[in-house]
Amino acid sequence: MRRRVPYAALALGIVVVDQLTKRIVDRLMEVHESRSIIDGVLALTYVRNRGAAFGILSDADLPYQSLLFAVVSLLALGAIVGYSWKLPLESRLPQSALALITGGAIGNLVDRAWLGYVVDFVDVYWRTHHWPMFNVADSAITVGVGLLILDILRSPGESPAAEMEAVRGTE
Question: What are the catalytic residues?
């Protein structure tokens, strides 16, 4: 159990930083207010995302939409945590990646549960082309997924599933 503490601390750290940054934005900015950080590239723009990742379905008016996304998030979290528990603790890269994803998912889930939407505020753009707005939780999830892909690419024959099989074979 002790060997899982660094991964739990990483996930908790993501949740804390995510929630702190969202509360700062909520207190210091009005909804849809934008403040330029780097002209033509980066701004802080406060939006309330009622949809899924990157605003997917944010304009949809589904019955119980917030509840639906919260349930899907909980199911995904359960799968991620279950997968993490089955991975060997020595698999530091995938364990760290899953901790980032877990922290990000919890950060956005907290918003959905308390507010009914997710606070997004990072606006990356070039001229009139904007990337969908995101937050610290979304960034952690994206980095975590990227690290999982990197782990698979660096050792394609030794994916986490192959590692689990190797461990089971030695028991």
Answer: 120, 138
